[in-house]
């Protein structure tokens, strides 16, 4: 007669048990360690905690060797220090690591501007100073790096258009706290960035008040028609710090933002915005400039960068010169404007095999989005009678969502100002970072027509 054997954890082999345990998070592993002596031994298995250390704290074998601790003890040490940021640390640490690896290769001088992370007690002191709690993901990022020194170029991107230049620094926590806002229209708002050239910042709301949501990140946009100067409209650029920072880093490290003269320029390239005509390819990247835009009156300022390239494989006799440009510009209301003009940026570039010509221009609209398309007209150098058009792909420009101020004076609706909803403007006055013939000191000013 067969004898039945009662199953118990002590009788089961280790390998399948360790496989099951490998699917548990650290809290469940700790709970299992109290179930029995066998599970207590198995839950201390180094590979289990190595996986958790690598996943949550992004630790390597070199980190373990340097600290001289077991994987379990290393996990425990990090959790004791950074446990309140458990849901954010790996995401933000990876973003910072990816950004630094990229900067080392492309913009090395920015690395020197990064500041070491702050201590937990220093963040607590800042909270006491401003009388407001900082979001945990913001605190977590500043434990990794305390922003950057106030230098140019700024970590958060640059833009150059004639007499308007922007380079945004990521503020360290002490400087940010010094700019904490309690004025009407900006109550409980902490600056995240600062631009020396414009004096403007991106802000994070630390409380849900005055129409803002806690943790929301925005550009302030003064209402130019309001009698109450505290009326603040917002171009919203992120619902929380993690979204705002990681999306920016992703655009940087994937090459969506071009690097120009060791600086990050916030032009976004849509891979669909490429058109090839014969041997010539035209591609477009775009950017919205909130600091030159307003909601009241509706004035939305966009800039775009165009790259014209002739294939290296083109025959020498295909060399040509640009004569003129044609634009068809359509705003969100369906209003269309056509613009024709000689050359680009006042120049008539010659295209030869492998030659690249880049320039930037701008346009203003009274609607929050627009699209543009058109063509360049060229002639062959060997035969000026041979004229042909090169397509410019359709590209869309869309401003971030915005929110109107809840403190705007009710008399605003009674104030009128002349504004032509159908008119937009197009200029081609920029070559390699130098825009000419423009005056954009007034955010409400129009980009001059160039036809």
TrEMBL record:
<dbReference type="GO" id="GO:0005737">
    <property type="term" value="C:cytoplasm"/>
</dbReference>
<dbReference type="InterPro" id="IPR018958">
    <property type="entry name" value="Knr4/Smi1-like_dom"/>
</dbReference>
<dbReference type="Pfam" id="PF09346">
    <property type="entry name" value="SMI1_KNR4"/>
</dbReference>
<keyword id="KW-0833">Ubl conjugation pathway</keyword>
<dbReference type="Pfam" id="PF04379">
    <property type="entry name" value="DUF525"/>
</dbReference>
<protein>
    <submittedName>
        <fullName>F-box only protein 3</fullName>
    </submittedName>
</protein>
<dbReference type="InterPro" id="IPR001810">
    <property type="entry name" value="F-box_dom"/>
</dbReference>
<dbReference type="InterPro" id="IPR036767">
    <property type="entry name" value="ApaG_sf"/>
</dbReference>
<dbReference type="InterPro" id="IPR007474">
    <property type="entry name" value="ApaG_domain"/>
</dbReference>
<dbReference type="InterPro" id="IPR037883">
    <property type="entry name" value="Knr4/Smi1-like_sf"/>
</dbReference>
<feature type="domain" description="F-box">
    <location>
        <begin position="6"/>
        <end position="52"/>
    </location>
</feature>
<feature type="compositionally biased region" description="Acidic residues">
    <location>
        <begin position="419"/>
        <end position="432"/>
    </location>
</feature>
<dbReference type="Pfam" id="PF12937">
    <property type="entry name" value="F-box-like"/>
</dbReference>
<comment type="pathway">
    <text>Protein modification; protein ubiquitination.</text>
</comment>
<feature type="region of interest" description="Disordered">
    <location>
        <begin position="410"/>
        <end position="451"/>
    </location>
</feature>
<dbReference type="GO" id="GO:0140374">
    <property type="term" value="P:antiviral innate immune response"/>
</dbReference>
<dbReference type="InterPro" id="IPR052121">
    <property type="entry name" value="F-box_SCF_Substrate_Recog"/>
</dbReference>
<feature type="domain" description="ApaG">
    <location>
        <begin position="274"/>
        <end position="404"/>
    </location>
</feature>
<dbReference type="InterPro" id="IPR036047">
    <property type="entry name" value="F-box-like_dom_sf"/>
</dbReference>
């Amino acid at each position: 007669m067969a004898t039945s054997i009662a199953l118990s954890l002590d009788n089961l082999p280790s390998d399948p048990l360790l496989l099951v345990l490998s699917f548990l998070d650290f809290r469940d592993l700790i709970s299992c360690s109290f179930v029995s002596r066998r599970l207590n031994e198995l839950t201390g298995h180094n590979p289990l905690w190595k996986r958790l250390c690598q996943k949550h704290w992004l630790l390597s074998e070199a980190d373990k060797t340097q600290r001289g601790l077991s994987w379990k003890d290393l996990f425990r040490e990090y959790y004791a220090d950074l446990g309140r940021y458990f849901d954010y640390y790996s995401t933000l640490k990876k973003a910072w690591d990816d950004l630094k690896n990229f900067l080392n290769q492309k913009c090395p001088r920015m690395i020197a501007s990064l500041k070491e992370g702050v201590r937990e007690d220093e963040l607590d002191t800042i909270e006491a100073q401003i009388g407001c709690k900082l979001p945990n993901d913001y605190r977590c990022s500043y434990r990794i790096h305390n922003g950057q020194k106030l230098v140019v170029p700024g970590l958060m991107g640059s833009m150059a258009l004639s007499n308007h230049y922007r380079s945004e620094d990521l503020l360290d926590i002490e400087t940010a706290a010094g700019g904490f806002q309690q004025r009407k229209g900006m109550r409980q708002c902490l600056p995240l960035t600062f631009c020396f050239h414009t004096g403007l910042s991106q802000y994070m709301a630390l409380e849900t008040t005055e129409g803002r949501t806690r943790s929301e990140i925005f550009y302030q946009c003064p209402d130019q028609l309001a009698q109450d100067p505290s009326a603040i409209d917002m171009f919203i650029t992120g619902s929380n710090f993690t979204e705002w920072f990681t999306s920016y880093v992703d655009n940087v490290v994937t090459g969506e933002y071009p690097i120009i003269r060791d600086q990050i320029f916030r032009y976004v390239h849509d891979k669909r915005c490429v058109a090839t005509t014969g041997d010539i390819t035209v591609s477009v990247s775009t950017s919205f400039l909130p600091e030159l835009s307003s909601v009241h009156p509706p004035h939305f300022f966009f800039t775009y960068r165009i790259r014209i390239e002739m294939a290296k494989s083109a025959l020498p006799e295909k060399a040509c010169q640009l004569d003129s440009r044609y634009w068809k510009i359509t705003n969100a209301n369906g209003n269309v404007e056509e613009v024709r003009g000689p050359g680009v940026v006042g120049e008539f570039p010659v295209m030869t095999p492998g030659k690249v010509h880049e320039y930037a221009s701008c346009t203003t609209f009274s609607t929050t989005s627009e699209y543009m398309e058109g063509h360049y007209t060229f002639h062959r150098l060997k035969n000026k009678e041979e004229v042909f058009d090169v397509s410019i792909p359709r590209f869309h420009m869309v401003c971030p969502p915005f929110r109107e101020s809840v403190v705007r004076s009710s008399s605003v609706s009674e104030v009128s100002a002349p504004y032509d909803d159908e008119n937009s403007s197009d200029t081609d006055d920029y070559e390699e970072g130098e825009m000419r013939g423009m005056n954009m000191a007034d955010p409400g000013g129009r980009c001059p027509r160039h036809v």
